[in-house]
Known about the structure:
The strands form 2 sheets. The protein has a 6-stranded parallel β-sheet with strand order 3-2-1-4-5-6, sandwiched between helices. A 4-stranded antiparallel β-sheet has the order 7-10-8-9. It has 3 domains: 53-378, Na+/H+ antiporter like fold (Up-down Bundle), CATH 1.20.1530; 399-508, Rossmann fold; 579-659, Alpha-Beta Plaits (2-Layer Sandwich), CATH 3.30.70. It has helices spanning 5-26, 31-42, 53-74, 77-82, 85-108, 113-124, 128-138, 144-170, 178-211, 216-236, 241-253, 258-283, 286-291, 293-317, 322-331, 337-348, 354-376, 378-386, 392-396, 420-431, 443-451, 464-469, 485-498, 514-520, 528-543, 548-561, 604-607, 609-613, 648-659; strands at 413-416, 436-440, 456-458, 477-480, 503-508, 524-527, 587-592, 616-622, 625-628, 641-646. Helix 6 runs antiparallel to helix 8 (144-170), helix 9 (178-211) packs across helix 11 and helix 15 runs antiparallel to helix 18 (378-386). By secondary structure, the chain is of the alpha/beta class.
Amino acid sequence: MNDLSFLRDFVIIFSAAIAINFLFHRLRIAPIVGYLMAGVLLGPSMLGVINDMGLIEVLAEVGVILLLFLIGIEFSIEELVRVNRSVFLGGFIQVFLITAVVLLISLAFGVSIAKGIFIGLLVAMSSTAIVFKVLSDRGEMDSPQGRISAGILIFQDLSVVSVVLVLPMLAGRSGFSAFNVLSSVFWAFAIMGLIIVVSRFVVPLILNNIVQTHSRELFLITIVLICIGTAWLTSLVGLSLALGAFLAGLVISESQYGHQAFSEILPLKDIFVILFFVSIGMLLDVNSVIRNPLYVFLGVLTILAIKFLVGVLVPVVLGYPLRIGVLVGVILAQIGEFSFVLAKEGIDFGLLSGDDYQVFLASAIITMVFTPFMIQGSGRFSEYVERLPLSNALKLGRFREKAIRKTELKNHVIVVGFGLNGRNVSRVLSASGIPFVVMEMNPETVRIEKKLGVPIFYGDASKEAVLAHANLSGALSIVIAISDAAATRRIVEMARRLSPSVYIIARTRYTKEVNPLYSLGANDVIPEEFETSIEIISRVLHRYFIPVNEIDKHISEIRKDGYGIFRNVEQKYTVFPELKQHLPDIDIETFRIEETSRLAGKTMAEVGLRKNYGVTVLAIKRGKETITNPTGDIRLLSQDIVILIGTRDNIAKVSSVVLASAK
Length: 663
């Protein structure tokens, strides 16, 4: 009978991955950490229950190929040309400085230059998967620290390809001679040229013919063949399999089928990547860590300190205030998943010894486990750093207090943030002739919008000097439309303290943040998830011609009592036909006559809706009876549902009459 022990290994691996991942999900820790911990638990230094490590490592190598392939699909050639300076400048500064600092420390301990550079590159990488998940869960992907971190992480992911390319030279296999360097560069450019030619002319032709068969299996097989085939071809000329997979992704991304290929490969990638991280965890020798706890402890502290300090420096160099720098430093302080890919390559090339690898592996896993908790406390930590006796130039970033010329606006609106919400608010204010000023922390956005005539300036609204520049004391209201929850709380508190009379409207993502903002002094708090549900309810009820005053009533109850109202709404309405779709140039609206309405008890002639308001009554719904084309002697009774047709302005006038109580 054939040996099927590998099936047993798979059952154990995926069972452990599910259990630990479920636990880590409850703890709000990224699943990658769970996979690593599962590998440590199952590895030979602990339970030792996996028999065929060789097979697991082979499948993990496939996971790396698929991982780089998907990165290539996501970052097409055109996108790489268009990316802004936060990617190339900020990312380059971060990778270069960390590598340089680690190299200097390594040289002080007698490590060779090549090995020091390699270790520096390992430390420079941060975890895209963990950071994106945590920031997404916190709703901070569009915040300044989120945008900067994402740009740096993109550069890091792309630089992995370059690192893989130079690994043979660092290991001394190709030497550092000019001939070998030029030879490697020549082959790299030759393959890139071939890839571009193939992506432009060959691959689209092949995929067009494949797609015409309408066979999902054939399409998937072709994509996998392109991925593995390109990786194999690059290995024939001495380049990395991972580099070949990345180039294959670029090939697919240049075709119109890139998104479909991504969705087809993604499930396969997820399975193999789980095996990769589990196999990495299995390589950790727990006994070695126990024998060298001091080295691991120092390794963790050194990594966190170096990455934090450099992470703080990059946003400051780009012109952002210190607070944003501190947040970015915390976000990028961990070791990334691609460091494991490079570390395995480094062992094969002799750039890492077994003991070095164990210390690095343990330190990396610990930093990844700490990351969610560090990001959670980063807001308070940044506030502590700002209280230190530092210069205003450092705290304010590109915005300088000495350069302030207070705006001359009065009775204006201050809009904090120029994302989607800030843009919409500003557009309406401009169209309505209401004076306003915008504060934004993205320098590129400020530069572009100023040229378009938007009254916008760069500044952190959580700083007193910035609010003074916007003349908070003379403003009627301030609209806080940013996605940074901690910054929103600080702005609300400061705005209320500096101007007790200003009307504060704050946008937040979750309902749990509403009460804290009210307690800090906000007049109105708009939670996105709450208002989204209200808008959905409103639109659904409008489709069934529920009276607008009843819709407004329910919305008011929802806002007052919270989501508990959802459990008590009775389905007591009759569905009307969708008349409006046949009369696109006018509006059709419904109203319920309440007992307190001034129309209750009056005849149609007495009300004179057509004569006085320019609207026509199509029908009256009274219980189970429908009165169509009602005459002037029909009396409006309490609980009647009146269906009106007319222009939007005229119906709005009637609305105020219907909703008004009889005196």
